[in-house]
Amino acid sequence: YNIGRETFMLPVAWHEGWPLILTGTETVPYVHAVPNLPRDPRPGAGLSGNFTDRDDFDAADLRPVWVALRTVREPWFETTSHAGWLTLQARAATLEGPEQPSLILRRQQHHEMTATTAMHYTPLGDSDKAGIAAFHNSAHFYFLGVTQAEGRRIVQLEERAGDRTGGRTVVLASAPLEASDSTVYLRIQARGPNYDFSYATRPDAWILLKADADGTILSTRVAGGFVGTMLGLYAYHPRP
């Protein structure tokens, strides 16, 4: 902490969102009592415990739970042109590169969780893609989305796992889509270290694309760093 011209080094712990300021060489406790404060009645994403959180993107601004990778310097997402939908401008910035991709993220808060989205998207070329990602960093992620292969629209699961995939992004599974499938539903489920990826073309008619994918590639132990796994919506178009 920097206060004026003085620098004070204090051990700090966080317990259920409350900081504990300790003194000297005191050890940070594993358990500590918290103030008996009333529950906050304001709506918002849960911070602990089991909860369901849904965002219909019905406000002009994104909720604070959503973040972008790196600094947003030009507008490429909005919620006003199609009421109740988040619209991403697909740009020529990949999940693997150092630029800012068209990627809106929120934190994965539980080892056991389900994340789903509904999407309207038609790729213009074989390299175009859009969908949902489980992201740790540019070398460790899963991407489940809609793309085009040899002129045909498909749903596809990609993995990038550092040295394990030779520093490349590889395709783990794919399935064809019909031209009439105007809405595609995508789902990521975490079960501890295992991740399942599914899609649907009708509400709740899920088709399992890949089961028991290795979720440890998204962990700090494997991927490094400290941010944990982020879940988000991504779109890519190779041409400016």
* Global outline: globular
- In N-to-C order, the SSE pattern is EEEEEEEEEEEEEEEEHE
Strand order of the largest sheet: 5-8-17-10-11-12-13
Distance between the termini: 43 Å
Question: How many helical stretches?
Answer: 1
Helix content bin? under 10%
**Which sheet architecture does the biggest sheet show?**
7 strands, antiparallel
SS-derived structural category: mainly beta
Query: Which consecutive residue ranges, at least 5 long each, have pLDDT under 50?
Result: 1-17
Characterize the structure shown.
The structure is a single chain. With 240 residues, the protein is mostly beta strands. Helix content is 2%, strand content 42%. The protein has one helix spanning 220-223, and strands spanning 2-3, 6-7, 12-15, 18-21, 67-68, 77-78, 87-88, 102-107, 112-120, 129-137, 140-149, 152-161, 169-176, 183-191, 194-200, 207-214, 230-236. Mean pLDDT is 88; it is low at 1-17.
